[in-house]
Amino acid sequence: MSKIDIPVPERFLSTAYLAVLEDGESEQFCRFAPEAMQMMQDIAAQGYPDEICGLLIGTADAQGWQVSDVRQVENLNEERAADRFQLDPAGYQTIDTELRGSDKEIIGVFHSHPDCPAKPSPTDLTSAWEGFVYPIVSVCDGKVAEVNCWVVTDEVSMGGKFQRLPHQS
Ligand SMILES: [Zn+2]
Questions:
Q1: CA atoms 66, 69, 74, 75: torsion sign
Q2: With 0-12 CB in 10 A as exposed, 13-18 as middle and 19+ as buried, what is 62?
Q3: What do you get for the CA distance between the two ends of the chain, in Å?
Q4: What average pLDDT does this structure show over 74-79?
Q5: Domain with 109 in it: what CATH number?
Q6: What distance in Å separates the CA atoms of residue 154 and residue 27, rounded to the nearest whole number?
Q7: Is residue 2 included in any domain, yes or no?
Q8: 84 pLDDT higher than 80
Q9: Tell me: the pLDDT tens digits for 106-158?
Q10: Which of 4, 78, 82, 124 has the smallest count of CB within 10 Å of its CB?
């Protein structure tokens, strides 16, 4: 990942955007198989300038999450493909069914932010589940600029917010 200046649109500095973030970092972590991290970045870069989304496959334990594979899933939001994603539930179902009986499961949802920071938006929070990892890949001018992973601190209906989750690959 080369050093790229990431544009910061005004809305990312708004109260509404800042309100979805919890201070500090999670004590858990996310470990990516190197191929999985590379594939997630490739999918995000190839989708530019549209926002892409997909699923993380792996395992979870008390320490955190281990991502062994990633799969792109269709973004159904064609109207605002540049800044919204709506993961195709049929794609989710297919992968969930495939994994049944294996030792792996769906453990998170990644998406890209074209020409924006790898920080979650209020819209991202409305669809977030506790217990899932949410990597965001910032893609600027078609190149991956940054990857950040996020988890929610509680059920969103209970006031959960995004907190940064350290990751390594
Ligand atoms: Zn987003």
A1: positive
A2: exposed
A3: 13
A4: 83
A5: 3.40.140.10
A6: 14
A7: no
A8: no
A9: 999 999 999 999 999 999 999 899 999 999 999 999 999 999 999 999 999 99
A10: 78
